[in-house]
Amino acid sequence: MKLSSCFIEPEGPIETKVQQPASYLRGVLDLDGKVVSAELAITACGVYRCFVNGRPVTDQVFTPGFTYYRERLQYQRYDVTGLVASGTNVVGVVLGDGWYRGKIGAFSRRNHYGTKTKLAAVLTVTFSDGSVAQLTTGSDWRATQDGPIRMSDWKDGEVYDARMEIDGWAEPGFDDRGWHGVAASAYDGELVPSRGEPITEHERFRPEVLTTPDNSTVLDFGQNLFGYVEFSVNGPAGRTVRLTHGETLDEHGNFTLKNVSMPGALEKRTGLRQEIAYTLREGSQTYKPRFTAHGFRYVKVEDWPEEVGPESFAAIAVYSDMKQLGEFSCSEVLLNKVTGNTRWSQKGNFLDIPTDCPTRERAGWTGDIGVFAETGGYLMDINRFLTKWLRDLALQQDPDGRVASIVPDVGMFKYMDGSAGWADAAVIVPHTLYRLYGNTEVLNAQYESMKRWLGFVRRRARRTGLFSRHRFSPHRKFIVDTGYHWGEWLEPGHDMGKDVLRNTFVPDAEVATAYFAYSAALLADVAAVLGKIDDASEYAELSANVKAAYRDAFTSDGIVESDRQCRYVRPVALDLLPEEEKAENVARLNDLVVANDYRIGTGFLTTPFILPVLTDYGYPNTAYRVALNRKRPGWLYEVEKGATTIWENWNGLDEHNVPKDSFNHYSFGTIVGWLFSRVAGISPLEPGFAKSRIRPVPGGGLKQAKCRYESAAGMISSSWTADDGEFRLTVDVPTETLVELPDGNSQTVPRGIHSFSCRVPE
Ligand code: BGC
Fold it and tell me: How far is the CA of 604 from the centre of ligand 1 (A)?
């Protein structure tokens, strides 16, 4: 029997507005013969944990993962040969709400994909004589909602009553007569095998126990992460202990969730709870939640029956199992901390899909991964992970080609879809996977989606906004001045609420036109790689037309006139202007940055580019001073304020330590891309590092820097020292590599280890 035709629903009629307890399900199979192999295929609408004869089938958590459920759902296959035996065998499953019907997104929508959890499983057992027996989910399965998980939800947490634990429920011999039957059900979309990386448990942290000024007991795990707390406790049965998870302490040193709450009235409806309420049974017991996880570093503990000791608690980080590819370190330890913090923000936000933050929204914001894909791709292997996500992006794309702000959908306002710089992830992310990993399959797979997105933007550009100042421009058909765009987003000092309001009424034509040109150019490149010559020239021409329009509309003869750093960075980084004009704009950018006392002034979209642009156009010292600046806003300011992940807002903690917005957004961690590609100097000359370039840039008073990157072509390392003007570089490369030294000399070297030295130019 096929997995797709054996969905069952374990619940009877329910009140959908009320959060339901988890369901426990059992199916029984009697086997007679010598088993040679057994395989289980399983999936759920919701999240499942599965046991065969009482033993877990996997160490993966939050299966079956998150996809755009309206179109597709992943299933997993497990080899369970070691778990089955001749005689009676039991498959036991617990089902929680998960992404399917739990609270998701900023608005904490429930029941977004459906109101009832569902399960489908097929156990196939092969005997030594070649015969086969199967157990499939069906009307003979039994279920109950009277188990210990009374409620489980992503954002709210879990309510667990240990007194209701059911001994032996997933084992043979259990009497399930008190359980009830299940109903046949169906899932409309496509079932696909898991495509990403499995979600598993990783690092563990012991806390320090604090008593805060308001006299609360708070655990400090020392690291902001996404995951849950495992604890052991002994106390009177019936006592309920409470653990609330948050990222920071407030300005008074007390536990708070304020920074990850929604503004004003929205908070009442959507509030983030991240709370575990655990009711004790008799004796000593150990617990960790199964169907919820939180973004946190601090945990407030209430009603604990014993003295709170650190040995009773461990925070467990949970994320998709990505391989670590890159490492960077240098003589400035605070920069190393920024690199570590960025990797932690990546871990905290890569849970089957790339999310913005692991707290307030936990949503697959396209723009966030659009800006971070390159840095993330240096740090960890995200090739499969993002290839999987991109498929959902395409499936969720509107018939008119518009790309959503969030993938998979969590019920965000429709009018915000198709935003420049966000929706362009449809082109930017596959192109990044191609450049870093040489992945041409993803280009093929996403090609139609990319074309459809560009088709949408093209049609959008043909309409000119009613009050647009571009109404009479000869270039108007190439200027995007309608639609909702998030814009540069979160420049220092900007206010999210006000920005959303402005963006709703005044389309940011500068950003939108820039991304139109950029994505068209990337698509021309992709078309050429795929041998689609006509498309390649069509998109190259389109891009050239849009660039001309941009230059005409947003610069004065190619020169930007603005007091915002992003305005200079964007046209240079996205290659919208001729080289001489770029150089002049970077000179102006440099003046602006110096006048700003070397403090960063960019938001989401240009932060990845500002340091590379300054470095490449002759201002590496300015780039270093921005990177090393310790005043707010700045990366080292965050680190000196005790950050262990990357803040969403440059103003995450002000001078009075008032926390603001999420503490775990990877987007501003894109400085790490600069550390790899400019400071250590490692970048691909050909896709997938088939040929590389190493062009290190000393500066900032760094005495040494070291970087290793396990590229698709093999391990690349670049390590240098700078002492008294003497620069020494050692590289170890797997393929032909162009080495460019700071004194301007360059050399192509074959595979192997090579050393160089030169004087560092003043
Ligand atoms: C998210 C961002 C996202 C943005 C849209 C925020 O609430 O957390 O990271 O990209 O909205 O601009």
Answer: 9
